[in-house]
Amino acid sequence: MRCLLDTNILVRLALNSDPQHPLVQDAIRKLRENQIDLCITPQSLRELWHVLTRISSANGAGLSTATSRSVIDELLKDFTLLDDTPIIFNEWLALVSENSISGAGCHDANHAASARVHGVDSVLTFDISDFNRFKTAGLTLIHPGSL
Fold first, then answer.
1. What is the pLDDT of residues 87-120, one digit of tens each?
2. How far is the CA of 95 from the CAs of 45, 112, 114, in angstroms?
3. φ/ψ (deg, to 5) at 124
């Protein structure tokens, strides 16, 4: 079984000061104990970089690029990176078209497309409602608090 870690999970994992950091650590530990392959995507790493390097007054972490690179390097060691492929783009285009997705929802659609193409069964996310529209893609949605 494989589980995709949503960007909001990675942000809380990367920021020790986040109040939900312990909850995310515990959820990841439990998934690993159940032999779940934890996966990340280039899209989630790009989104994470954006949050980590954005200034704190704009709701970012205000980290340097060097520190952000270290965070990304650690995640690449700890989790399975799913490749971006042209097939993912085609799947994404189908998902955004079929579900009439506009705006920022297109990023979640990219995660769902990557999961579908790579045979990922579930998504660990705080934003269950954002991913509900992709249940038809065969994804089980897991909130860290439910573990």
1. 999 999 999 998 889 888 889 899 999 999 999 9
2. 21, 8, 11
3. -90, 120
Domains of the chain and CATH, by start: 2-146 (3.40.50.1010)
CA 56 → CA 6, 16, 20, 111, distances in Å? 21, 15, 18, 26
CB contact at 8 A, 127 and 6: yes
Alpha helix stretches (DSSP H) within 79-139 = 86-98, 105-117, 128-131
DSSP 62-77: ---HHHHHHHHHHHHH
Helix (H) or strand (E) holding 9: helix 7-14
Note if the pTM is more than 0.85.
yes
